[in-house]
Specification:
By secondary structure, this protein is α/β, with parallel strands linked by helices. It has 16 helices and 13 strands. It has a 6-stranded mixed β-sheet, sandwiched between helices. Helix 3 packs across helix 13 and helix 10 packs across helix 12. The N terminus is likely disordered. It binds pyridoxal-5'-phosphate and zinc ion.
Length: 428
């Protein structure tokens, strides 16, 4: 689990990171390429010097670049711009959504954090920039991942930007829009006859081989650093709201990692005095598809056991049947007083169209899941329509265009003449 690659290491004179700590038993390890605890096999996450975090100011962040590196002082790596492996993602639009709010009966401000505006059109550019910057500091020279699609795009593009080799592993049945937008960057792209969970298992075996000793799998051996990149979505929302944390957030879940890290980002900002929490705290809501709902099912059953599923359905980017951070997502949602729900394929399509029609944002299937679940949460009385809410659109609709291609098209088809336009009712 620890790489034997000769590593220059994370520069702890610049980075606030101090150790890796087990999320389950709190055992501590050096800042290396290790993702599981030797004591209990629990997942590791980055632990910071709280005094270093507390020195960070709003002014320092606001004077930084117009991308996620403005938060470098709160991240494990990349404080020196010369060390970054990055497409400079982040600072994506926080879109006011009054028309969507009105359709759903939400009376408080509703916002869409539109992370499809990142360089490879999903939030994965955030996690990849942080993971690969840490990976290079740790001495890795080749970049890899197990992906449900968006991560594949991002790893291949980041590798191309710095001229490094990449090898990306995907399930064989991904959308063409995800395959082409990975393959175009060059690099090896390995389609596996199996599910994402099969792909992930294979990557866990490959990473242990001598031949892959020089290879950082962003979501396997450098996963603790990767996961931290998702915090920047939380930081940005708070900064864009004028250093306030919204009362409610609705977040799509695959592994569940993104949800836990947005929650962690809010907690950090409050702890170091950079942002104000709403009275009564913030509530975290999770969204899955009906074809892959192991985390929401455990919540609904009041269980602490996440039973893996075999995923089905059109929300392929969220199709992780055995979610690595599922227990921690459950914990965050329960602790905050939130909830989870899931949406079937028809509801997902309707969610994509509703978001597009009311906000001008065209989401991929994961965004359709999130908007469909937002609707259900309001209808079920789980989400307070009178409390400020942010929903996260994490990916771009053009990559999963088949989801709605059969449902929308020209509203009229006419010959190029005024008379035809009149006959079609276009002149009133
Ligand atoms: C578009 C999109 N949204 C959300 C997620 C969920 O991320 P996580 O695995 O951190 O829960 C993914 C994961 O692949 C994704 O591709
Ligand atoms: Zn442990």
């Amino acid at each position: 689990m620890t790489s034997t690659v000769a590593a220059s290491g994370i520069d702890t004179t610049a980075s606030p990171a101090r150790a890796l700590v087990c999320r389950a038993c709190q055992a501590r390890y050096p800042l290396a390429a290790q993702h599981a605890c030797y004591e209990c096999f629990g997942p590791l996450e980055v632990d910071y010097d709280s005094a270093a975090l507390a020195r960070v100011t709003r002014e320092q962040i606001e004077a930084g670049p117009a991308n996620l590196w403005r938060y470098a002082a709160l991240l494990p790596a990349g404080q020196d711009p010369a060390t970054r492996v990055t497409l400079d993602p982040g600072l994506t639009p926080l879109v006011a959504a009054p028309h969507l709010a009105a359709e759903l009966g939400i009376t408080a401000p509703l916002w869409v954090k539109d992370d499809s505006a990142n360089p490879t059109q999903s939030f994965k550019d955030r996690v990849v920039s942080v993971a690969l910057t840490a990976a290079r500091a740790l001495g890795f020279t080749r970049f890899a991942c197990a992906s449900t699609g968006n991560l594949a795009n991002s790893v291949a593009a980041h590798a191309a930007r710095v001229g490094a080799p990449s090898v990306v592993f995907i399930p064989g049945d991904l959308e063409q829009g995800k395959v082409v937008t990975t393959a175009v960057y060059g690099g090896d792209l390995v389609a596996i006859d199996g599910s994402y969970d099969d792909v992930n298992r294979l990557c866990g075996e490959l990473v242990e081989t001598d031949e892959f000793e020089d290879t950082a799998f962003v979501n396997v051996n450098v996963r603790p650093y990767y996961a931290e990149g998702s915090k920047t979505l939380g930081y940005e929302v708070a900064e864009q709201l004028g250093w306030r944390i919204p009362a409610q957030v609705v977040i799509p879940m695959a592994s569940g990692e993104l949800l836990t890290k947005i929650d962690k980002a809010f907690a950090e900002l409050v702890e170091i005095g950079l942002a104000e929490a709403p009275a009564g705290g913030w509530r975290v809501f999770g969204a899955q598809s009906a074809g892959c709902n192991p985390i929401a099912t455990a919540l609904h059953a009041g269980s602490d056991e996440i039973v893996p599923v075999k995923p089905t359905g059109i929300a392929k980017s969220l199709n992780i049947g055995d979610p690595a951070a599922g227990l921690y997502a459950l914990e965050a949602v329960r602790r905050s007083g939130g909830w989870m729900d899931y949406a079937d394929d028809d509801e997902i399509r309707a969610g994509i169209r509703l978001l597009a029609r009311t906000t001008g944002v065209f989401a991929e299937t994961a965004g359709g899941v999130t908007v469909a679940v937002l609707r259900k949460l309001v209808e079920a009385g789980k989400l307070d329509p009178a409390a400020e809410t942010v929903v996260f659109n994490t990916g771009e609709g053009l990559k999963t265009i088949d989801a709605v291609a059969g449902q929308v098209g020209p509203t009229h088809r006419i010959r190029p003449s005024l008379r035809a336009a009149r006959d079609a009712g276009l002149l009133g």
